[in-house]
From TrEMBL, chain A:
Single annotated GO MF: ATP binding
Transmembrane segments: none
Organism: Thetidibacter halocola
Protein name stated in the entry: ATP-binding cassette domain-containing protein
Keywords annotated in UniProt: ATP-binding, Nucleotide-binding, Transport
PANTHER family for this protein: ABC TRANSPORTER I FAMILY MEMBER 17
Domain ABC transporter: 24-245
From TrEMBL, chain B:
Pfam families: BPD_transp_1
PROSITE patterns: ABC_TM1 (PS50928)
CDD domains the record matches: TM_PBP2
One cellular component (GO) term of this entry: plasma membrane
Family: Belongs to the binding-protein-dependent transport system permease family.
Sequence intervals crossing the membrane: 32-54, 61-85, 97-118, 156-181, 201-222
Protein name: ABC transporter permease
Annotated localization: Cell membrane
Chief location category: membrane
PANTHER family attached to this UniProt entry: PERMEASE COMPONENT OF TUNGSTATE ABC TRANSPORTER
Domain ABC transmembrane type-1: 26-222
Length: 251, 235
């Protein structure tokens, strides 16, 4: 993967000043799907700025938590409060890169252009965005011919296209080669420095150490632990987190 | 039963001789059925897309009706259109009975439900795949419909083809509202019916062969388009 180039200044311009949607507050959030309890009694507070890494074993509920925060599903119990706003009301100010990105049956460039056009944004940014994620040379290719890692990068470009205040990333580097992982991490770090609030799901402990300001550790649908990254990695408070970091905890 | 080989040679002879009557009939068939297909797509595709993404009470019943309308018998459609367009009918003043326009109207009514029902199925499957991503993008319903129609375009081509195939092959509706008038409303299917009843089996068969070749040609064209789309992963 080519070196990720920074977005030109015009792209990183100050977004329209609106009522801030942080801090985020969850109280007693539960989610049931088809009778199964997916999330249960989740309390969580996320402040403005920074990068929160969400970790936990497979099936812990990480992806479902992101969908709740993004207003794609409604909790079956509790409240999710984006500084006084309901999740659905602020969805347009956020972007989510799904664990399995859904690409449109169009060219790579058309996938980015679609979002810009739908949202009434400057469509001349397509090439800058593709350049930013190192996909400029694939612009004219059918998006569905991209490799797994390239598809992730296209999904990231699409997410960045709307200049979101909150960027949810669901294992965006899971199928990337090491150089691409580095490039993506640089892009995310730059977005974070630009004031984008990043909420990042990962299984990669090294990545979490590199990027995290704070860590949310989910286990069996509950927040087992939430705290500053230093503390979490140096001295996890729960047995589950300790075993997870040691590579022992499976479910 | 006459010799099939004879029918084939007659068909070739007819086509090669550039028989003006034959070409007139073929041209009218295509004109009527292609226009009806186009109109059906203009009506049926947006309708199919809307029903595909909308959730409302009674949706199940709407689906049943849509699917049932796919099986409308052409003679019944012809009769209904006839009743409306005949001199004493509510639309009799338009003077459309026994014109190609009447035939287009009848075929449109016949195949619009086919286009709507089939496209609904195609687009609902596609939407199942896209829905969550589209909600994340905060698209309006109008934007969703447009995106689905565009991304489903190659599958929808097959849907349009199904409509066209039904239109160009039906005889009941165009016979009743067109009247099979020579040089005016005679199309391939009504001509075949007429020649058969006259005992001109070879001529009827020859027309039938031309009809088949057209159907094959159109299908092959659409198939080729789809294949190129599949190669680009656009299907
Ligand atoms: N529609 C659904 N109906 C029922 N159960 C579901 C549904 N979607 C997800 N689940 C269940 O919810 C649990 C949490 O799923 P989720 O995708 O949030 O896990 P995750 O933490 O993201 O795991 P992974 O690390 O594998 O991505 C899983 O056990 C899954 O089987
Ligand atoms: Mg997940």
């Amino acid at each position: 993967m080519s070196e990720a180039r920074p977005l030109p200044a015009s792209l990183a311009t100050a977004r329209a000043v609106a009522v801030p949607i942080l801090p985020l507050r969850l109280r007693g959030v539960g989610l049931r799907l088809g009778g199964a309890v997916i999330l249960d009694g989740v309390d969580l507070d996320l402040g403005a700025g920074g990068c929160t890494m969400v970790m936990g074993p497979n099936g812990a509920g990480k992806s479902q938590l992101l969908k709740l925060l993004h207003g794609l599903t409604a909790p079956s119990a509790g409240t999710i409060d984006w500084n006084g706003h309901a999740p659905q009301a602020v969805r347009a100010r956020q972007a989510l890169v799904f664990q399995k990105p859904v690409l449109l049956r169009r060219s790579v460039a058309a996938n980015v252009d679609f979002v810009l056009r739908a949202r009434g944004l400057d469509r001349s940014r397509v090439s800058a965005l593709l350049d930013h994620v190192g996909l400029a040379h694939k612009a004219a290719q059918p998006a569905r011919h991209l490799s797994g890692g390239e598809a992730q990068r296209l999904a990231l470009a699409r997410a960045l296209a709307t200049d979101p205040e909150i960027l949810f990333l669901d294992e965006p580097t899971a199928s990337l080669d090491p150089a691409s992982v580095q490039a993506i991490e640089r892009i995310v770090a730059r977005a974070r420095e630009g004031g984008t609030r990043v909420i990042f799901v990962t299984h990669d402990i090294g990545q979490a150490r590199r990027l995290a300001d704070d860590v949310v550790f989910l286990h069996r649908g509950r927040v087992a632990e939430h705290g500053p990254a230093r503390d979490f990695f140096r001295q996890p408070r729960t047995e589950a987190a300790r075993r997870f970091l040691d590579g022992q905890l499976v479910v | 039963m006459q010799n099939i080989a004879e029918a084939f040679s007659l068909a070739f002879a007819l086509v090669l001789s550039g028989d003006a009557d034959l070409f007139e009939i073929v041209a009218l068939s295509l004109q009527v059925s292609l226009t009806a297909t186009l109109l059906s797509c203009l009506i049926g595709l947006p309708l199919g897309a809307l029903v595909a993404i909308a959730r409302f009470p009674g949706r199940g019943a709407v689906l049943v009706v849509m699917n049932a309308l796919m099986g409308l018998p052409p003679v019944v459609v012809g009769l209904l259109v006839y009743l409306h367009l005949s001199r004493s009918g509510p639309l009799g003043f338009l003077g459309l009975l026994y014109t190609p326009t009447a035939m287009i109207i009848a075929q449109t009514i016949l195949i619009a439900p086919i286009v709507a029902a089939l496209s609904r199925q195609v687009l609902e499957d596609l939407h199942g795949e896209y829905a969550e991503q589209f909600r994340s993008f905060c698209l309006t319903r109008r934007q969703i419909v447009r995106a689905l129609l565009w991304d489903g375009r190659y599958s929808l081509l097959t849907v349009g083809l199904a409509g066209f195939g039904r239109a160009v092959a039906e005889v009941g509706a165009v016979m009743i509202v067109g009247g099979n008038i020579d040089h005016l409303t005679r199309v391939m299917t009504t001509a075949i019916a007429l020649e058969t009843s006259r005992g001109e089996l070879a001529l009827a068969l020859a027309l039938g062969i031309v009809l088949l070749v057209i159907a094959l040609g159109v299908n092959a064209g659409v198939q080729a388009l789809r294949m190129s789309a599949v190669r680009q992963a656009y299907v």
